[in-house]
């Protein structure tokens, strides 16, 4: 009952007019940015971080949650209307959604995607309401060994599931860890990796790094792309309603997809993308209309969209209760907290109850706003695809530079932003995943601090760390994962060597 009373206080705070306007602005901006192909949730949050400066903490966080939900739905619009996924989690929606659009059922596909997103997102917020507070209470008992072990295991899992080459992902993770150690060592007072540059003495600001890698890097990538004329399917308001048969066929996939996404969201990794593929495979296997798959099966839109939103919502549970981001988008959302001096974690529930419960209440409201706003204005949002990138991206770059400067009023940060913008651009063009780098940069200081504190508590005996129940389990799982990665790498090398023809002796 106490949590229910706190939730009601959260609703009272989030229903203030300026907070409602912040949620509306967040959903609108998130959807507009999410429509642009390739930017995705991480890039959207990175690009829109600067607009929160000067806001009250709760108002800013409400806007960020709106951006979070809006960007998720924005990717579905491009997938269905123009066959271009706005983000990785929208790839599966594109398979059936675009085929429905070709058959003249684009409105129904968009409506089912929005309804599925709303239902699964709401279920996710209910999960946050009931799971995050008790988990935070348990986490209060965690010591430095537990935080170090969980952060290390999460980083290993995230790196292993980031997609592409595992070796490249590990390299990006190590670079991120090194970036996190730049600056003064709080134990010895010595500056590390400063290279005589005064600005590096205080370390590299994580927010500036992600704004450069994801924000400015995306701007450069979009400018360098060749833009062709985009043909967008026109949607009439009367065509936005699915018929009775489509609605009936979508109900169970929405709930099954929501359950899959809820489970996946509590596991470190790109849960949104993985859950959509799992939901699509399940619905295809359970379907009695196999002949429709690949030609516009409504279940292939309803299930994956629900899975994506449920996974994204449940990813907030470890972020709010443990302070650990289990995905790249959660890490970017964490930077929004950090801008306003808020550190998510076990103490957030007890020290900032109005902020915590106000944010959760705003998620209910933001989900509803996303549904109400997106359906009638889907044609307007889709028209953003026709805007020339050479006009749109310079404006975005100007906002990004302004935000990086206002963060610390430092010209040095503008140089850091520019450096990481070009670094993110070149890495992206070379096929490297940027998520491990960002997560390594954030978790690096936490890993180092946790390890040092653990060594002090155990008098330098690392084996004591391995014998603690929770920390030991997490670390042994990490060791097993490293062993599996090494075994897989050696096996690939042996296969390559055995497949090469051996030259005959002459």
From TrEMBL:
Transmembrane segments: 21-49, 61-85, 106-132, 138-158, 165-184, 204-224, 322-342, 354-377, 414-435, 470-490
Pfam family, one: TctA
Signal peptide range in chain numbering: none
Organism phylogeny: Bacteria, Pseudomonadati, Pseudomonadota, Alphaproteobacteria, Hyphomicrobiales
Superkingdom, natural source: Bacteria
Ranges of residues in domain DUF112: 20-438
Keywords carried by this UniProt record: Membrane, Transmembrane, Transmembrane helix
The protein's name: Transporter
């Amino acid at each position: 009952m106490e949590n229910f009373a706190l939730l009601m206080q959260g609703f009272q705070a989030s229903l203030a007019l300026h907070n409602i306007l912040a949620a509306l602005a967040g959903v609108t901006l998130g959807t507009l940015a999410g429509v642009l192909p390739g930017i995705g949730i991480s890039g959207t949050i990175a690009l829109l971080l600067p607009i929160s400066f000067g806001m009250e903490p709760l108002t800013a966080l409400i806007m960020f949650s709106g951006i979070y939900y809006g960007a998720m739905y924005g990717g579905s619009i491009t997938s269905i209307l123009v066959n271009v996924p706005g983000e990785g989690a929208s790839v599966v929606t594109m398979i059936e959604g675009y085929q429905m659009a070709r058959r003249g059922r684009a409105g129904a596909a968009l409506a089912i995607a929005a309804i599925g997103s709303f239902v699964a997102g709401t279920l996710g917020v209910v999960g946050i309401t009931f799971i995050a507070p008790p988990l935070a209470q348990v986490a209060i008992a965690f010591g430095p060994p537990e935080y170090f072990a969980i952060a290390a295991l999460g980083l290993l899992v995230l790196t292993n599931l980031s997609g592409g080459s595992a070796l490249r992902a590990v390299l990006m993770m190590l670079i991120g860890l090194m970036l996190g150690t730049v600056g003064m060592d709080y134990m010895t007072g010595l500056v590390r990796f400063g290279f005589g540059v005064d600005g590096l003495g205080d370390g590299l600001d994580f927010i500036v790094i992600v704004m450069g890698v994801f924000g400015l890097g995306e701007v450069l990538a979009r400018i360098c792309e060749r833009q062709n004329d985009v043909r967008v399917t026109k949607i009439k308001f009367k065509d936005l309603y699915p018929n009775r048969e489509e609605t009936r066929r979508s109900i169970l996939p929405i709930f099954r997809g929501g359950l899959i996404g809820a489970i996946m969201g509590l596991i470190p990794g790109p849960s949104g993308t993985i859950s959509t593929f799992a939901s699509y495979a399940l619905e295809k296997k359970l379907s009695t209309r196999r002949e429709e798959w690949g030609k516009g099966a409504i279940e292939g839109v309803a299930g994956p969209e629900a899975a994506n939103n449920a996974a994204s919502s449940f990813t907030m549970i470890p972020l709010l209760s443990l302070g650990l981001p289990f995905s790249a988008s959660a890490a970017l959302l964490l930077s929004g907290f950090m801008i306003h001096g808020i550190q998510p974690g076990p103490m957030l529930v007890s020290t900032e109850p109005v902020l915590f419960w106000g944010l959760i209440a705003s998620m209910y409201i933001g989900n509803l706003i996303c549904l109400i706003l997106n359906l009638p204005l889907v044609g307007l949002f889709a028209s953003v695809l026709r805007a020339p990138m050479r006009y749109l991206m310079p404006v975005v770059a100007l906002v990004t530079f302004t935000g990086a400067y206002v963060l610390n009023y430092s010209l040095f940060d503008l140089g850091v932003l520019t450096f990481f913008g070009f670094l993110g651009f070149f890495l992206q063009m070379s096929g490297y995943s940027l998520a491990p780098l960002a997560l390594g940069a954030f978790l690096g200081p936490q890993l180092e601090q946790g390890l040092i504190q653990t060594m002090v508590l155990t008098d330098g005996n690392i084996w004591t760390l391995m014998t603690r129940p929770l920390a030991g389990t997490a670390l042994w799982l990490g060791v097993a994962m490293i062993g599996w990665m090494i075994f897989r790498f050696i096996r690939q090398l042996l296969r390559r060597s055995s497949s090469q023809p051996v030259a005959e002796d002459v």
